[in-house]
What we know:
The chain has helices at residues 6-12, 25-28, 36-50, 76-79, 89-92, 108-114, 161-180, 184-187, 197-205, 221-229, 244-253, 266-280, 286-291, 295-303, 312-319, 337-344, 347-356, 371-377; strands spanning 208-211, 214-217. By secondary structure, it is an all-alpha fold. Among the domains are: 159-305, no CATH class; 309-361, no CATH class. 12% of the residues are buried.
Amino acid sequence: MPRIPRVGALASLPSTVVPVNRVPFVARVAFSTTPVHAAGRKAEWLRGKLWKGEAPGGDDPYQERVEPEQASNLPEEALDLSNVDRRPYPVRTTRLVLPPSHSEAMTEKEVESVDTEYTPATSIDDLGEISPVKTWWDQPGHWGEESEFQGFGSANRVEDQAVMEIYVRQALVESLSYQQRGLLEEYAVKKWPFGDRAHLDRTLSVGIRFKDGKPLLSTHWSVVTEKLKNVRPGEVEEKVEISPEEAQQMVNALDPSWKTATLDDDHLKFAIRKRIYQLTGHFIPDVKVAAARTPQELITVALTFAKRGKKLAEVLEDQKALFALPNVKVHNRRVTPIDREVAVGRWKIIEEELQKRDLPVTGTGKYGKNKERDWLTGKA
């Protein structure tokens, strides 16, 4: 069979390729013959149908508009807040030396540009040591005696009956003086100065008279509070201490009828109770103050100490019923694992082994709590 030339064979085959007529991109773009101003009139006609009268906003809602700046009615002092200290008022007015705010040290080049005499350190010995923040209050000048807590009530509680009566008499006269001057409600919530010995003698010399059972000061009652108000804080720092013998002589010189005065005013009893707590250290509960009607009852309540009730172990020890049983032992506190080890004689060995390993005998010491247990139980 004769061979067919390759070119001739391809030429004799029927053509299966369909020609594609490509249209240029420019020819396929749709052009509008409507002018631009005609489209604007159409939009205005549509806006007129939607709104009665003049339509709000611009013609093109998608066009960016520059909003006008709103004029503020605030003064210039209120607008300029760049230099205002925004720290809390207690922090701004405190007398304590607070730690400085966090700041970053300047680089060597920055320091040289500010201080021409700056010499960088060449060894670790030339570097200055800065104390950490946790030791700030231990440094001198940051926390002194003036910053220590000063309790309102006296630290030394009065135990003598005569001394207690003298201080109650002083509190009664001072409170009545404020009441008769119309200043009791104002000064009842303030701290009164202790006063010196002359103030105490002046207070005890004021006479007390009764009107319908209510006490009233008879002579020189305005001088008591006037001197008390004019006492400067630096003059008297401690109260006047009275010995029991001297107090007994003062009590004998006074008329005991003042202890039967009727106290039915709540502000008066509050001021007396507060002054008694300041002078004697005895704080009378509200329930007992409300029940007390006379100064004598206040003295009795202040000097009556509530006795602690017996514990269950003490009650069982008094009954002696369980102590007779051979298999029962009563403890006055909770029995701990250490108590059990001590009972069998193992605690001494355990203590020695813990000390050999530099482990705390009781507690966690410097190792902290068991965090792994909290992780496993989901508490952390």
